[in-house]
Structure formats: C-alpha cells, structure tokens
C-alpha cells in the first residue's frame, strides 16, 4: 500500500513537472550558464606556457593553492581566464559584511530594505574589482618569476603582459559575478554557490580515477580505498542529518476576540538550525587565508628565507595552518550566525504580534533566551564545520589521498544540492497550487 502511494505521488510530481514550463526554463538556463562557466575554465591567459606552469604547480601547488584550484575547477592550474574564479567576490562580501557591523552608515543602509541592499551590492562589486586587480597583478608578477625544466612560464614578460593578465583575470571574475547573479535571478539555486559546486564536481571524476590509480600502483592499499569510499558515504549522510537538524522553540499566540469571533490561541514554533551559518564559514576562512598566501607562494622562489619558512609552516597538515583554519572557521560561524539571525529583532517581532515563548517574559528576557539557545547551537555547528574541514587535511597529510573525500568539498556539494532540490520542490508546489486554484475558479463559474 505504501509503495503504491509513493508511486502515485511520484507520478503526480512528474506530471506537475511536465507542465511547469517556467521551472524547466530556469533549469535549462542554469545548466547553460554552468556550461559557459566550464568552457571558460579552459581558455588560457595569453602569453603563458601551460606545460611549464603545470610542472611548477605540481611541485608547489599543494596546500592552500590546491584548495583554491579545487574551488576554481582546475582553472588556476591551467591559468585560464577564470583562474581567480569567484573568490574575490566572496572576499568583497566578507569585507562589506564586516564593515556593516562597525560603520553606522552602512548598517543604516542595510536596514533601508531593497534600495539599501542594491547600494551595498554595488559597493561589493567595486570592492571585487579592486581585490581581483590586486590578486591578478600579484599573479602576473609571480608568473614572470616562474620557470620549469622547459624554460620560463611567461613567453614575453613585461608591462604589457602584466596589463593583459590583470585585464583578463579581472574580466573573468566580473563575468562570473554577473553570471552568478543571473543564475540566482533567472535560474535555480544560488548562482555563486552553484559556480563553486560545478568546479568541485568537475574535478571529482579525476580525483576518483587518481585514487584508483594509486591503489593499482600500490601507493594506497585496497583496504584504505574501501574505507575512504565508505567514509565518503557516511560523511554525506552525516552532513544531511546535521543540515536538517533544528531546535524548535515553541511560540504561543494568545486568543483575541473581535465581535463574535475568536482569533489566535495557536501554538507555533521558531526553527533554529543547528548549523545556521551553512557552508559560508569554511569558504570565508579559506578565502581569507588564500589572499596573502597565494601571492607569497608565487614569490617564494626568489623571496627571503622567512617567506619560505612561513609557507612551510602553512603547508597542508601543518599545525599553524590547521590552527589558523580552525580559528577562522569558528569566528565566521559565530559572525555569520549573528548576521543572519538577530535575537533582539526576533523578540521584538514576537512581542509586536502578541507571540511569546511559554515560561519566558516578552522583550529582553526573550531575546536573552534566544541568544543563549543560539550560542549553544552555534558552538555545536562550529565544531561540526571545523571537524569536517580538518578531516581532509589530515587524510592528505597522512595518507596522500585526494582532497575530495571529505570536508569542505563534500559539504559544499551536499548543501548546494539540498538547497537546489528544495527550490525545485517549492516551484513544483507553487505550480501545483496554481493549478488547483484555477480548477476551483472554473468549477465556481460553472456552478
């Protein structure tokens, strides 16, 4: 009986999907935009020898640069027009969000609604151009100092090469920022997250093939490979469980009488996610670490000894790198949670509409209680994010396995997939309700 009901529900969803023309257009637009992005990750920057760059990256592209290349979908390793990917935009967003907490004018602008949000987005775009230009110039200078077994990485170094590299990389980042906004507005899901998701998924087959090749050559044991596969499935299940975990706070609305009718008296709940900040803290933390370390990595060959020592300490699996990574993840977990959820504002809204938490007085007591509960949840969420992010670093440093078997990559893939599926389901549900309303109106006219 249950299987028959599930089959009937699935057939109904398929029928609704077949009629949801707008949803299909959104899905096709998203897929086309991601295909355009993947094409761009293979268009090389002019004047760079890709073979020399591949040799240099193979010898020194681990650690944070390897993580950057993972987010860029291999574009950094190939030094293509999308080598910076969308990371400058993420860095600019971090800076603007931090500034809104310390600059009153930006905080007031944030509270102006849609108009204020547009202005902050415009400031974010300007900051993206500046950050991308600085990173692109550092990459151009670093490329000129690179050389491999077959010669120099740059064919014709000089001011013209630096100018064309900066223009190319900044243009690629701005195009990806625009593409992400178009996906968010005209497609399905969050455009920025889907671009990072596409880069990770594109490299996943190579990671699996590389792992199997290591097993064939004997570098990894068969037992370890099986363990990694089981662990990947277990981590996916664990991520889904945690991302769906909520603390539901009961909210009671009092009864009120208008004329002969009684309204209210309902009991609702306020859902607080265990991981309110989502996948943002690991991305923010890696982005902050990548800005100085990327430039330092390019200059390490001809730089001072202390720079080489610093890069060695910030290598994958090193204590200093792990400590900084953990501290940044925990900081951004609390910071982003404070940005997206304001206990004082929530308590004021509950008081405004007559709602209250049983046993807690409205107003300041309610906000203090919400802040207490949210802090405890954020401690667990930060520990969960930190553990997931550190796991692949330990696996890479101890067992030399691909980066994709845990941590930030799986977290991004799973959460973005869940959010996108949820949006598709909401579109289908809205379309189904529209169809039912139209049928009811037609029946009412006939009657």
UniProtKB/TrEMBL annotation:
InterPro entries: SecY (IPR026593), SecY/SEC61-alpha (IPR002208), SecY_CS (IPR030659), SecY_dom_sf (IPR023201). It comes from mine drainage metagenome. It is a multi-pass membrane protein. The chain crosses the membrane at residues 27-45, 86-106, 126-147, 159-179, 191-212, 218-242, 279-300, 320-341, 369-391, 403-422. GO terms for biological process: protein transport. One of its GO terms (cellular component) is membrane. The lineage of its organism: unclassified sequences, metagenomes, ecological metagenomes. This is Protein translocase subunit SecY. It is found in: Membrane. Pfam families: SecY.
């Amino acid at each position: 009986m249950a299987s028959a009901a599930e089959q009937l529900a699935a057939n109904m969803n398929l029928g609704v999907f077949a009629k949801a023309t707008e949803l299909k257009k959104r899905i096709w637009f998203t897929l086309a935009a991601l295909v355009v992005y993947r094409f761009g990750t293979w268009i090389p920057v002019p004047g760079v020898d890709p073979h020399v760059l591949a040799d240099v990256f193979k010898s020194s592209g681990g650690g944070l640069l390897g993580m950057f290349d993972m987010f860029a979908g291999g574009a950094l390793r190939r030094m293509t027009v999308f080598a910076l990917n969308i990371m400058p935009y993420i860095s600019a967003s971090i800076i603007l969000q931090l500034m809104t907490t310390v600059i009153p004018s930006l905080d007031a602008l944030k509270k102006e609604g849609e108009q204020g949000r547009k202005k902050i987005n415009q400031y974010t775009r300007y900051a993206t151009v500046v950050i991308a230009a600085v990173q692109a110039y550092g990459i151009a200078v670093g490329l000129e100092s690179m050389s491999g077994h077959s010669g120099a990485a740059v064919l014709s170094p000089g001011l013209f090469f630096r100018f064309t590299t900066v223009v190319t990389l900044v243009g690629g980042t701005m195009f990806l920022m625009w593409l992400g906004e178009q996906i968010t507005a005209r497609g399905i899901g969050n455009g920025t997250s889907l671009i990072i998701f596409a880069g990770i998924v594109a490299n996943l087959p190579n990671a699996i093939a590389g792992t199997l090749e290591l097993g064939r050559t004997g570098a990894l044991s068969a037992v370890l490979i099986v363990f990694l596969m089981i662990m990947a499935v277990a981590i996916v299940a664990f991520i889904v469980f945690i991302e769906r975990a909520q603390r539901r706070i009961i909210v009671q609305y009092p009864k009120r009488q208008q004329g002969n009718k009684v309204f209210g008296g309902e009991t609702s709940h306020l859902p607080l996610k265990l991981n309110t900040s989502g996948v943002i803290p690991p991305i923010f933390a890696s982005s902050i670490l990548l800005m100085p370390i990327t430039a330092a990595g390019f200059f390490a060959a001809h730089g001072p000894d202390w720079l080489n020592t610093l890069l060695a300490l910030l290598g994958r699996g090193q204590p200093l790198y792990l400590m900084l990574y953990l501290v940044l993840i925990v900081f951004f977990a609390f910071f982003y949670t404070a940005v997206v959820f304001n206990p004082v504002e929530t308590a004021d809204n509950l008081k405004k509409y007559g709602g209250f938490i049983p046993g807690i007085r409205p107003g300041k007591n309610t906000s203090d209680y919400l802040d207490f509960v949210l802090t405890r949840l954020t401690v667990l969420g930060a520990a969960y994010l930190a553990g997931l992010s550190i796991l692949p670093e330990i696996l890479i440093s101890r067992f030399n396995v691909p980066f994709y078997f845990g941590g930030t990559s799986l977290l991004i893939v799973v959460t973005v997939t869940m959010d996108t599926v949820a949006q598709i389901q909401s579109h289908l549900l809205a379309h189904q309700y529209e169809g039912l309303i139209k049928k009811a109106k037609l029946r009412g006219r006939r009657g």
